[in-house]
Amino acid sequence: MIRSILFTFILAFVFFIAERFGYTSFIHPLWKVILLFYLSLSFLMHRLVELGNQEKGERFIPFYMGFTVARLVLSVAFVGFFVYQGVENKRIFIFDFLVLYIFYTAFEIYGLSRKLRRDLKDRL
């Protein structure tokens, strides 16, 4: 979980610096809300992976697949809520959301594959 928090702080720093140097045409004003949403999804993923790794990892795959579906549904609901509420600059909002979705997905896959490789070596 510490890595997810650190990753979020790094992304927040990048957004903050970009905002201060005038790259506001690429950054939506609600970037903090989007980052908070992804941080909460990372926390949920962390908890589900811990639950799935109990009992020698037998429940890992169903938990991870369930999280993947939940992340997709929650993401669509999140974007749908803000678009329905009439958020300004919808294209920039959706673009920022999708870029962060790709970053967080890549980060989670990297973290899980690293952890699974280590667990596999321990079992052999």
UniProtKB/TrEMBL annotation:
Alphabetical keyword list: Membrane, Transmembrane, Transmembrane helix
Top-level taxon: Bacteria
Residue stretches spanning the membrane: 30-49, 61-86, 92-113
Name of this protein: Uncharacterized protein
Natural source organism: Rudanella paleaurantiibacter
